Amino acid sequence: MPGTMVSASTGALNSLLGKLATLAGKEYGKLKSVRKEVASLESEFSSMKALLEKLVDMDELDAQAKEWRNQVTDMSYDIEDCIDEFMHHLGKNDASTSFVNKTARLLKKLRVRHQIASKIQEIKIRVKQASERRMRYKLDEYRPKPSYVSVDPRIVAMHTEAASLVGVDVPREELAELLMGDVQEMMVVSIVGFGGLGKTTLVNQVYLKLEEQFQCHAFVSVSLKPDIPKILNKILLAIGGTLCHSGELDEIIKNIKLHLLNMSHDIWSSSAWNVIKCAFPENNCGSRVVTTTRIYDVALACCSYNRQYVYNMRPLGEEDSRTLFFSRIFGPGEACSGEFEVLSVDILKKCSGLPLAIISIASLLAGQSKVAWVYVRNSLRFMFEGNPSLEDMKRILDLSYRNLPHHLKTCMLYFGMYPEDYIIEKDDLVKQWIAEDFVGKVHGLDAKDVAGSYFNELINMSMIQPVDTDYNDEVLSCRVHDIMLDLIRVKCVEENFIDIRDDPQATMELHNNSRRVSLYYNGAGDSVILKTINGSLSQVRSVIAVTRDFLPSFLGFKYVRVLYLRARVRQKIDLTGICELFLLRYLKIVTTGEFEIPAQLWRLGYLETLVLDQKPGRVLSIPSDIVRLRQLLHLIVQPSAVFQAPINSLKSLRTLQGFDISSSSLESIKSFGELNNLSDLQVVYYPSDRDSMVLDALCYSFEKLLHSSSLKSIKFANPTPFDFHGFSTLSCFPRHIQILDLEEFYLPRIPKSISLLQELQSLQLMVTEVVPSDEDIDILAGFPFLANLYLVIMQNPKEKLVIPGTDLAFPALKTLHLQLPKNHLAFEAGAMPRLQKIKLLFAEVGWEDACQWLEPTGIVHLPASLRKVTLGCYFICEESATYSTVVRSVFNKHHPGVDLALIG
């Protein structure tokens, strides 16, 4: 990705080259010796960067090449740190003095001149040594030696006997049914899923089941770097053709265009598919093509973007996982002996239904004693190291990793900073990538959008697993499969990318040149840790520490860019030392201990993200000098923050969450209306004796932002919901907002003024009553882009709520949460045509009434796109449980396959 400043493959060389150019510029270049030496260094670093980029594309490097690569990337970090510190010292004087004047004054000092010259000489010596090793090792002529070629484990899967397979029956029948439909045109079905899920095994079983129904058929593999003529020749031979020795694509394709069933597995790119598909006949003879891929976008491309022909591969269920595991260890049909039962539960949990992982680990345990089982269970995080039995699985996953572009490899390795089974928030992760300079610059796009696309690419490639999604199916959080995380950590060690410490005894072994460190402790041995890490983390750029009764010394993190501390502590925390971290860009602190924001926080001139979460909830007072953080983009304080001074100087601010307008000064409330880049606002509000003044100040700011195209989300929060009438007449909401959350207030009615917000995509309201005859439902139904509606109605409507079925009503709604006392609700034919999820909660309705209400109310009219239904009835009667079957039969009749959950 052009513009990426820091990566696993080239270290900080990209960033360093840019800073060297600045260093030789007019301000710094007043020292002639500096300008001359810097020009020489620029040339040498550019040459080293080119060689590193060449080495990263080679599959295997020998020890010498790896060592040189690691030394150069390490050197690039050291030199960038040196330059950053120098620039920092130049900029320390009073900001009112011009940069050129204060630079000239400082450079006149002999001590400063001496320090610069000395540092440059140190750099030159290191660069010279690296260049000499490069010449000595002949790295410019380097070619990796051919390694032993082992059997592709996917080939083994193709020839596995059906009788020995577990969990394949249901997906085989589903896929066969999809393929053998009535469609006569050529159909392409694509199976997508994580490496090792059994895609090849499944497609082979379908192939064997259906091959006799086709006159011609072929089964071929597509490699990471496909030889297209070779692949097409394989198809040609399989269907009885003659090998085309010319290798001309047109000639091969002409010979293939026959009636055939084709199975192609592991398609890695859309470009490869675009050529291969040219060989398939476009006729009405019922031709079928099945592809497998790990990348969702490729799967869509194969199916001409028809989502109904994308088959998402599922992990094995708990029972199938146990069956497969025990059959591989004890033999088919044999049960697990009692002494291994508990251990097997823990091991299978780590495998998460991944067949390849289950088979690989089972092979490792076959015939082993309980001691070996305990060792494997405890060592699953490090299983790739020195375990030949797991090599097949490692090769499968490594293939996925090697297919990533360079910038995504770096982002993927960063997941090693998080512990196993950790739910990783996308919003946190992309900001950390940006702070580390992993994100390339793309013209016309914000860095956060670019980083978000990186995240989405990794989801689409099945490298990480989605956990939480929003109403638009945007992934909000993810986790990394334990087996993939193990591979990541092995790569991190190989490339000296991350140092992971979750054992107090291992802290002594921290590398002096560790650039990223993860510290995870539960409190044991904390008294030792403070002594052992002091001074050993001075070079780190990222620190993620999840601890109890322990916080690392901030003063040791001199060059840190990312600092995430999560600590369960009893004592008050002193954050003063954080103010010395002059390169800090991302700071997040989540703790149960008390702390105050240091008054000197303004010294963190590069800070872009500040997240402070103090539990149990305490209000934090924000120092007035925070407005000097001119690069601050995201300020998030939980539960709330009080501002006494105006904040209009924070011109770069895009996210402001936890703004306590009830306790903050009126001047601060009025001032946020000047933040023209603000896109996400969350305010905390509760009743006080100055309600009218606060609302006036709020309206004043909203009116200033009335036509702002930046502000997209406004959310209100408070400790407990309360009746509030002020918002019913509030008509000054900025017109372009897409998210409005008023859930914490009991409003008397649906405010008519919100009908002006025609770009709304998500709306959350809690109202006392709804009057359909007075256009209440029409207001909600008229939003053209509304995809998510959360509506709580406290009083039972006097007339039935009818969801209209016209084309103009709820045209974009995907998710509906509706709560009201009784089921006075009906759906017309055609209602909510894009609805995917619906949650209906009735406080005063029992299951007997619900069963009688379901069909007459028009549940049949809900669209075929419906995927999930949650129905809650809270009026309890003795026979409640007996109606579950009746409710499920109604939904199975009208919406077969829907995910149904019953509450109450």
Outline:
This protein has 904 residues and is of the alpha/beta class. Helix content is 35%, strand content 16%.
Any overview of this molecule?
With 904 residues, the chain is of the alpha/beta class. Helix content is 35%, strand content 16%. The strands form four sheets. It has a 19-stranded parallel β-sheet that branches. The longest helix is centred in the N-terminal third of the chain and has 28 residues. The radius of gyration is 31 Å and the shape is globular. The two termini are 52 Å apart. About 2% of the residues have low confidence.
Please supply descriptive tags for the structure shown above.
19-stranded parallel sheet; 27 helices; 904 residues; globular; 29 strands; 5-stranded parallel sheet; alpha/beta
Architecture blueprint of SSEs:
Layout: H1 13-23, H2 32-56, H3 63-90, H4 99-107, H5 110-137, H6 153-158, H7 169-179, E1 187-192, H8 199-210, E2 217-221, H9 228-238, H10 249-256, E3 261-265, H11 270-276, E4 288-293, H12 296-302, E5 310-312, H13 318-330, H14 338-351, H15 355-365, H16 370-378, H17 391-402, H18 406-413, E6 424-425, H19 426-435, H20 447-460, E7 465-466, E8 477-479, H21 482-494, E9 499-501, E10 516-520, H22 526-533, E11 542-548, E12 562-568, E13 586-591, E14 609-614, E15 619-622, E16 634-643, E17 655-660, H23 666-671, E18 680-684, H24 691-704, E19 713-717, E20 722-723, E21 739-747, E22 762-767, H25 776-781, E23 788-793, E24 801-803, E25 815-820, E26 825-827, E27 837-842, H26 847-854, E28 868-873, H27 884-894, E29 899-903
Parallel strand pairs: 1-4, 1-5, 2-3, 3-4, 9-10, 10-11, 11-12, 12-13, 13-14, 14-16, 15-16, 16-17, 17-18, 18-19, 19-21, 20-21, 21-22, 22-23, 23-25, 24-26, 25-27, 27-28, 28-29
Antiparallel strand pairs: 6-8, 7-8
